[in-house]
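Severity: low
Component: inverse-folding endpoint
Summary: output formatting inconsistent between runs
Steps to reproduce: submit the following structure tokens with default settings.
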């Protein structure tokens, strides 16, 4: 979350500054600690057993009325 906020602030200041001033450097990502016993790779989640059925066209159109 912090990295995204820093990047958003950097982009905002870059876009809203005049073209003649010195541009700020892009923020560095914050290193994340790795907990003991956890893999450094992201976790994978099992796929849902059965997908939910899609609504019929008339059900979908009645929703948006």
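Observed output (run 2 of 3):
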């Amino acid at each position: 979350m912090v990295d995204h906020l820093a990047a958003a602030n950097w982009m905002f200041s870059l876009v809203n500054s005049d073209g003649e001033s010195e541009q700020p450097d892009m923020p560095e990502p914050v290193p994340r600690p790795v907990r003991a016993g956890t893999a450094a790779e992201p976790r994978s989640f099992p796929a849902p057993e059965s997908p939910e059925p899609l609504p019929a066209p008339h059900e979908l159109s009645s929703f948006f009325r």
